[in-house]
Design brief:
- This protein is α+β, with helices and mostly antiparallel strands.
- It is 12% helix and 13% strand.
Length: 293
Amino acid sequence: MSFDQSNVNDVLDKDVYGTDGEKIGGVGQVYLDDQSGQPSWVTVKTGMFGTKESFVPVDQAQLTSQGLQVPYGKDQVKDAPQVEADGRITPDEEAELYRHYGLTQPAQSEETALYDQESDRSAAGSGRGDRDGDGVYDDVEGRTEGQDTSGLTTDEATTRSEEQLKVGTEKVATGKARLRKYVVTEQQTVTVPVTREEVRVEREPITEADQATIGKAMDGPAISEEEHELVLHEEQVVVEKQAVPVERVKLGTETVTEDRQVTEEVRKEQIETSTDAGVEGSTGDQVDPTTQR
Protein backbone atom coordinates (compact mmCIF):
# COMPACT_ATOMS: atom_id res chain seq x y z
CA MET A 1 0.00 0.00 0.00
CA SER A 2 1.38 3.40 -0.96
CA PHE A 3 1.98 5.94 1.79
CA ASP A 4 0.12 9.24 1.35
CA GLN A 5 -1.88 11.83 3.26
CA SER A 6 -4.83 9.47 3.72
CA ASN A 7 -2.92 7.05 5.95
CA VAL A 8 -0.52 9.35 7.79
CA ASN A 9 -2.11 8.48 11.13
CA ASP A 10 -1.58 4.76 10.44
CA VAL A 11 2.20 5.07 10.20
CA LEU A 12 2.79 6.92 13.48
CA ASP A 13 4.68 4.79 16.03
CA LYS A 14 5.12 1.99 13.46
CA ASP A 15 8.48 0.34 12.68
CA VAL A 16 10.56 1.23 9.62
CA TYR A 17 12.19 -1.53 7.56
CA GLY A 18 14.97 -1.23 4.96
CA THR A 19 15.59 -2.86 1.59
CA ASP A 20 16.84 -6.11 3.12
CA GLY A 21 13.88 -6.37 5.50
CA GLU A 22 16.01 -5.38 8.49
CA LYS A 23 14.35 -3.17 11.07
CA ILE A 24 15.89 0.32 11.09
CA GLY A 25 13.90 1.91 13.93
CA GLY A 26 10.53 3.40 14.74
CA VAL A 27 8.65 6.25 13.07
CA GLY A 28 9.05 9.42 15.10
CA GLN A 29 7.45 12.28 13.13
CA VAL A 30 5.91 12.87 9.69
CA TYR A 31 6.71 15.99 7.65
CA LEU A 32 4.25 17.22 4.99
CA ASP A 33 4.95 19.22 1.85
CA ASP A 34 3.58 22.74 2.36
CA GLN A 35 2.37 22.93 -1.24
CA SER A 36 0.88 19.48 -1.90
CA GLY A 37 0.09 18.44 1.67
CA GLN A 38 1.52 15.00 0.94
CA PRO A 39 4.04 13.35 3.31
CA SER A 40 7.62 14.04 2.21
CA TRP A 41 9.78 12.84 5.10
CA VAL A 42 9.58 10.75 8.23
CA THR A 43 12.03 10.69 11.09
CA VAL A 44 13.30 7.28 12.18
CA LYS A 45 14.25 6.83 15.82
CA THR A 46 17.58 4.99 15.96
CA GLY A 47 20.48 4.62 18.36
CA MET A 48 20.42 3.68 22.03
CA PHE A 49 16.85 4.06 23.38
CA GLY A 50 15.79 5.74 20.11
CA THR A 51 17.36 9.07 21.08
CA LYS A 52 18.60 9.82 17.54
CA GLU A 53 16.23 10.74 14.70
CA SER A 54 17.23 10.41 11.05
CA PHE A 55 15.21 11.82 8.15
CA VAL A 56 14.09 9.44 5.37
CA PRO A 57 12.21 10.40 2.14
CA VAL A 58 8.91 8.57 1.71
CA ASP A 59 8.06 9.20 -1.96
CA GLN A 60 8.75 5.49 -2.68
CA ALA A 61 7.76 4.11 0.74
CA GLN A 62 5.15 1.39 1.16
CA LEU A 63 2.88 0.81 4.15
CA THR A 64 2.77 -2.90 5.02
CA SER A 65 1.27 -4.95 7.81
CA GLN A 66 4.64 -4.79 9.61
CA GLY A 67 5.20 -1.07 9.24
CA LEU A 68 6.77 1.33 6.75
CA GLN A 69 9.04 -0.14 4.05
CA VAL A 70 11.62 2.27 2.58
CA PRO A 71 14.04 1.60 -0.33
CA TYR A 72 17.17 2.37 1.71
CA GLY A 73 19.56 0.39 3.88
CA LYS A 74 19.97 0.76 7.63
CA ASP A 75 23.47 2.27 7.40
CA GLN A 76 22.39 4.84 4.81
CA VAL A 77 19.54 6.00 7.05
CA LYS A 78 21.69 6.16 10.18
CA ASP A 79 24.37 8.16 8.31
CA ALA A 80 21.89 10.75 6.97
CA PRO A 81 22.76 14.43 7.61
CA GLN A 82 21.59 15.51 11.03
CA VAL A 83 18.65 17.90 10.89
CA GLU A 84 16.88 19.11 13.99
CA ALA A 85 13.38 17.61 14.17
CA ASP A 86 11.97 20.92 15.41
CA GLY A 87 8.94 21.26 13.16
CA ARG A 88 10.44 22.69 9.92
CA ILE A 89 12.94 21.59 7.28
CA THR A 90 14.58 24.49 5.46
CA PRO A 91 15.23 24.28 1.69
CA ASP A 92 18.98 24.01 2.32
CA GLU A 93 18.52 21.17 4.79
CA GLU A 94 16.16 19.38 2.40
CA ALA A 95 18.64 19.76 -0.47
CA GLU A 96 21.38 18.18 1.64
CA LEU A 97 19.11 15.25 2.52
CA TYR A 98 18.16 14.70 -1.14
CA ARG A 99 21.86 14.62 -2.09
CA HIS A 100 22.56 12.03 0.62
CA TYR A 101 19.86 9.69 -0.73
CA GLY A 102 20.88 10.29 -4.37
CA LEU A 103 17.54 11.88 -5.29
CA THR A 104 16.68 14.91 -7.40
CA GLN A 105 15.06 17.62 -5.33
CA PRO A 106 11.66 18.67 -6.66
CA ALA A 107 11.01 22.36 -7.28
CA GLN A 108 9.87 23.84 -3.97
CA SER A 109 10.06 27.34 -2.59
CA GLU A 110 8.61 26.80 0.85
CA GLU A 111 9.74 24.83 3.87
CA THR A 112 8.47 21.38 4.74
CA ALA A 113 6.40 21.38 7.92
CA LEU A 114 5.89 18.84 10.68
CA TYR A 115 2.58 17.00 10.58
CA ASP A 116 0.73 17.59 13.85
CA GLN A 117 -1.93 14.90 14.25
CA GLU A 118 -4.17 16.73 16.71
CA SER A 119 -3.82 20.19 15.13
CA ASP A 120 -4.50 18.91 11.60
CA ARG A 121 -7.60 17.05 12.76
CA SER A 122 -8.96 20.19 14.41
CA ALA A 123 -8.12 22.32 11.37
CA ALA A 124 -9.93 19.97 9.01
CA GLY A 125 -13.13 20.35 11.02
CA SER A 126 -12.97 24.12 11.48
CA GLY A 127 -11.78 25.26 8.06
CA ARG A 128 -8.78 27.04 9.57
CA GLY A 129 -5.38 27.01 7.84
CA ASP A 130 -1.81 28.19 8.19
CA ARG A 131 -1.96 31.16 5.82
CA ASP A 132 1.31 32.74 6.84
CA GLY A 133 3.30 29.48 6.89
CA ASP A 134 4.59 29.89 10.44
CA GLY A 135 3.41 26.48 11.66
CA VAL A 136 0.53 28.05 13.67
CA TYR A 137 -3.07 27.97 12.46
CA ASP A 138 -4.87 31.30 11.86
CA ASP A 139 -8.45 31.84 13.02
CA VAL A 140 -11.16 33.45 10.86
CA GLU A 141 -10.19 36.97 11.98
CA GLY A 142 -6.50 36.57 11.20
CA ARG A 143 -5.46 36.03 14.79
CA THR A 144 -3.32 33.04 15.66
CA GLU A 145 -4.00 30.15 17.96
CA GLY A 146 -1.38 27.95 19.57
CA GLN A 147 -0.83 24.37 18.58
CA ASP A 148 -1.73 23.22 22.10
CA THR A 149 -4.31 24.45 24.59
CA SER A 150 -2.62 27.83 25.02
CA GLY A 151 -2.98 30.89 22.78
CA LEU A 152 -4.53 34.28 22.45
CA THR A 153 -8.03 32.99 21.71
CA THR A 154 -8.16 30.16 24.23
CA ASP A 155 -9.27 30.27 27.84
CA GLU A 156 -7.26 31.40 30.87
CA ALA A 157 -5.51 28.02 31.30
CA THR A 158 -2.19 26.89 29.87
CA THR A 159 -0.51 23.54 29.71
CA ARG A 160 2.82 22.92 31.42
CA SER A 161 4.97 20.14 29.95
CA GLU A 162 8.19 18.49 30.91
CA GLU A 163 10.47 15.83 29.56
CA GLN A 164 10.72 12.49 31.32
CA LEU A 165 13.37 9.84 30.92
CA LYS A 166 12.25 6.53 29.50
CA VAL A 167 15.08 4.07 29.97
CA GLY A 168 15.11 0.62 28.45
CA THR A 169 17.62 -1.94 27.26
CA GLU A 170 18.54 -3.46 23.92
CA LYS A 171 20.75 -6.46 23.25
CA VAL A 172 23.92 -5.69 21.29
CA ALA A 173 26.86 -7.87 20.29
CA THR A 174 29.94 -7.17 22.43
CA GLY A 175 32.32 -9.86 21.21
CA LYS A 176 32.73 -13.45 20.06
CA ALA A 177 34.03 -16.58 21.78
CA ARG A 178 35.58 -19.31 19.66
CA LEU A 179 36.70 -22.91 20.12
CA ARG A 180 39.86 -23.79 18.17
CA LYS A 181 41.40 -27.25 18.20
CA TYR A 182 45.12 -27.60 17.48
CA VAL A 183 47.72 -30.40 17.81
CA VAL A 184 50.66 -30.43 20.22
CA THR A 185 53.35 -33.11 20.64
CA GLU A 186 54.55 -34.36 24.00
CA GLN A 187 56.84 -37.19 25.18
CA GLN A 188 55.30 -40.13 27.01
CA THR A 189 57.32 -42.83 28.78
CA VAL A 190 55.70 -46.23 29.32
CA THR A 191 57.35 -49.21 31.06
CA VAL A 192 56.67 -52.49 29.27
CA PRO A 193 57.88 -55.90 30.67
CA VAL A 194 59.59 -58.08 28.02
CA THR A 195 61.01 -61.61 28.28
CA ARG A 196 64.03 -63.25 26.66
CA GLU A 197 65.65 -66.66 26.77
CA GLU A 198 69.18 -67.20 28.06
CA VAL A 199 71.33 -70.31 27.81
CA ARG A 200 71.67 -72.33 30.93
CA VAL A 201 73.94 -75.37 31.08
CA GLU A 202 72.61 -78.24 33.13
CA ARG A 203 74.82 -81.14 34.03
CA GLU A 204 73.40 -84.44 35.19
CA PRO A 205 75.78 -87.32 36.15
CA ILE A 206 74.98 -90.84 34.79
CA THR A 207 75.14 -93.61 37.35
CA GLU A 208 75.56 -97.32 36.72
CA ALA A 209 71.88 -97.75 37.32
CA ASP A 210 71.16 -95.15 34.65
CA GLN A 211 73.36 -96.92 32.12
CA ALA A 212 71.03 -99.91 32.04
CA THR A 213 67.99 -97.70 31.27
CA ILE A 214 69.56 -95.25 28.88
CA GLY A 215 70.06 -97.90 26.27
CA LYS A 216 70.84 -96.52 22.89
CA ALA A 217 72.08 -93.30 24.40
CA MET A 218 75.30 -95.12 25.09
CA ASP A 219 75.58 -96.38 21.52
CA GLY A 220 78.31 -95.08 19.27
CA PRO A 221 81.93 -94.36 19.79
CA ALA A 222 83.09 -93.97 23.27
CA ILE A 223 84.88 -90.75 22.46
CA SER A 224 83.67 -88.46 19.65
CA GLU A 225 83.05 -84.82 18.66
CA GLU A 226 79.44 -83.46 18.38
CA GLU A 227 77.66 -80.12 18.06
CA HIS A 228 74.09 -79.25 19.24
CA GLU A 229 72.13 -76.05 18.68
CA LEU A 230 69.44 -74.37 20.76
CA VAL A 231 67.33 -71.46 19.42
CA LEU A 232 66.97 -68.56 21.86
CA HIS A 233 63.91 -66.22 21.85
CA GLU A 234 63.15 -62.80 23.28
CA GLU A 235 60.23 -60.29 23.18
CA GLN A 236 60.62 -56.94 21.43
CA VAL A 237 58.58 -53.78 22.12
CA VAL A 238 56.06 -52.93 19.40
CA VAL A 239 54.65 -49.34 19.50
CA GLU A 240 51.38 -48.39 17.85
CA LYS A 241 49.40 -45.12 18.07
CA GLN A 242 45.62 -44.91 18.16
CA ALA A 243 43.41 -41.78 18.34
CA VAL A 244 40.60 -42.11 20.88
CA PRO A 245 38.00 -39.52 22.00
CA VAL A 246 38.59 -38.33 25.57
CA GLU A 247 36.11 -35.46 26.20
CA ARG A 248 33.54 -33.06 24.70
CA VAL A 249 34.12 -29.28 24.90
CA LYS A 250 31.40 -26.79 23.96
CA LEU A 251 30.61 -23.08 24.41
CA GLY A 252 27.68 -21.77 26.41
CA THR A 253 26.47 -18.43 27.77
CA GLU A 254 25.14 -17.33 31.10
CA THR A 255 23.26 -14.13 31.86
CA VAL A 256 24.71 -11.78 34.47
CA THR A 257 22.64 -8.83 35.69
CA GLU A 258 24.27 -5.64 36.87
CA ASP A 259 22.99 -2.16 37.65
CA ARG A 260 24.08 0.81 35.55
CA GLN A 261 23.18 4.43 36.14
CA VAL A 262 22.00 6.61 33.26
CA THR A 263 22.33 10.39 33.58
CA GLU A 264 20.63 12.63 31.03
CA GLU A 265 19.41 16.21 30.96
CA VAL A 266 15.64 16.75 30.73
CA ARG A 267 13.74 19.97 30.18
CA LYS A 268 10.54 21.12 31.84
CA GLU A 269 8.41 24.17 31.60
CA GLN A 270 7.90 26.54 34.53
CA ILE A 271 4.97 28.94 34.76
CA GLU A 272 5.04 32.35 36.36
CA THR A 273 2.30 34.98 36.61
CA SER A 274 2.45 38.71 36.08
CA THR A 275 -0.14 41.51 36.20
CA ASP A 276 -0.48 44.85 34.51
CA ALA A 277 0.07 48.06 36.45
CA GLY A 278 -2.82 48.93 38.75
CA VAL A 279 -4.09 45.35 38.99
CA GLU A 280 -4.00 43.85 42.43
CA GLY A 281 -2.11 40.60 42.92
CA SER A 282 1.44 39.36 43.19
CA THR A 283 3.69 39.47 40.11
CA GLY A 284 6.62 37.43 39.00
CA ASP A 285 5.88 34.56 41.37
CA GLN A 286 6.93 31.20 40.00
CA VAL A 287 4.19 28.59 40.15
CA ASP A 288 5.01 25.40 41.97
CA PRO A 289 3.86 22.66 39.59
CA THR A 290 3.01 20.37 42.48
CA THR A 291 0.33 22.76 43.79
CA GLN A 292 -1.19 24.02 40.53
CA ARG A 293 -3.88 22.13 38.70
